[in-house]
């Protein structure tokens, strides 16, 4: 069960979540770039080998060709999107918890925490879907060498001009399919690990920094273990030429399994898992520090 050290404040969750999201992007974006490049690399022609043999090969080639800057390609879009997105994500989780409490001191069960986490996934999709679409397009154009978009805003302008709002929001259903169950897993595993790591008779607020880092990092691992298949489909769908997959994700799924087998749904697995631990450890540490600061600033709100 989850101990609630103080009444839940969705607004404090909102601001602390935004700060946690900024911490996550700075730590995690380089491996996110590698993940997207691995997931979207073209199938080699007969007799040719894959562009990237794996995570470390992709890292090596990106650094050799583009330097450190190449790993941070497309970062402006997630920074602009992630701060409000994580703010909304943690707000959704806070609201999900609060509406299930009959009194402010109610301790929530793990299924209730999972439901609150799923609600946060619904909340974030409106911001996440266009941000992910722009990020993926900018990341893959850097690896193909064809520069179509000058930056995030140019990408939005061109997509809107060509395809309208639907072009910007392409892949929304897949983003929902990825984020709703994954967010449930994310928050539930974090709360469970905090409970496990909190010594008897102590409060969650007294958890050491290494314990918060471990719980946050493992929550990221659990989150991505659930999210990867839908994420692979989403990356493929969002970066495909218009009209390539008329039936949406079903076409992407059929093509991937037919051409590359079920294992292709776990493309970029190493890059995702290498990124998940430090990025989410940074996110939850940032969140917990911001929450302590906000409680100190305004203990009664």
From TrEMBL:
<feature type="repeat" description="Solcar">
    <location>
        <begin position="8"/>
        <end position="99"/>
    </location>
</feature>
<protein>
    <recommendedName>
        <fullName>Mitochondrial carnitine/acylcarnitine carrier protein</fullName>
    </recommendedName>
</protein>
<dbReference type="GO" id="GO:0015227">
    <property type="term" value="F:O-acyl-L-carnitine transmembrane transporter activity"/>
</dbReference>
<feature type="transmembrane region" description="Helical">
    <location>
        <begin position="12"/>
        <end position="31"/>
    </location>
</feature>
<comment type="function">
    <text>Mediates the electroneutral exchange of acylcarnitines (O-acyl-(R)-carnitine or L-acylcarnitine) of different acyl chain lengths (ranging from O-acetyl-(R)-carnitine to long-chain O-acyl-(R)-carnitines) with free carnitine ((R)-carnitine or L-carnitine) across the mitochondrial inner membrane, via a ping-pong mechanism. Key player in the mitochondrial oxidation pathway, it translocates the fatty acids in the form of acylcarnitines into the mitochondrial matrix, where the carnitine palmitoyltransferase 2 (CPT-2) activates them to undergo fatty acid beta-oxidation.</text>
</comment>
<comment type="similarity">
    <text>Belongs to the mitochondrial carrier (TC 2.A.29) family.</text>
</comment>
<keyword id="KW-0813">Transport</keyword>
<keyword id="KW-1133">Transmembrane helix</keyword>
<keyword id="KW-0496">Mitochondrion</keyword>
<keyword id="KW-0812">Transmembrane</keyword>
<feature type="transmembrane region" description="Helical">
    <location>
        <begin position="107"/>
        <end position="129"/>
    </location>
</feature>
<dbReference type="InterPro" id="IPR018108">
    <property type="entry name" value="MCP_transmembrane"/>
</dbReference>
<dbReference type="InterPro" id="IPR023395">
    <property type="entry name" value="MCP_dom_sf"/>
</dbReference>
<dbReference type="InterPro" id="IPR050567">
    <property type="entry name" value="Mitochondrial_Carrier"/>
</dbReference>
<feature type="repeat" description="Solcar">
    <location>
        <begin position="108"/>
        <end position="196"/>
    </location>
</feature>
<dbReference type="Pfam" id="PF00153">
    <property type="entry name" value="Mito_carr"/>
</dbReference>
<dbReference type="GO" id="GO:0006839">
    <property type="term" value="P:mitochondrial transport"/>
</dbReference>
<feature type="transmembrane region" description="Helical">
    <location>
        <begin position="75"/>
        <end position="95"/>
    </location>
</feature>
<dbReference type="GO" id="GO:1902603">
    <property type="term" value="P:carnitine transmembrane transport"/>
</dbReference>
<keyword id="KW-0677">Repeat</keyword>
<dbReference type="GO" id="GO:0031966">
    <property type="term" value="C:mitochondrial membrane"/>
</dbReference>
<keyword id="KW-0472">Membrane</keyword>
<feature type="repeat" description="Solcar">
    <location>
        <begin position="207"/>
        <end position="293"/>
    </location>
</feature>
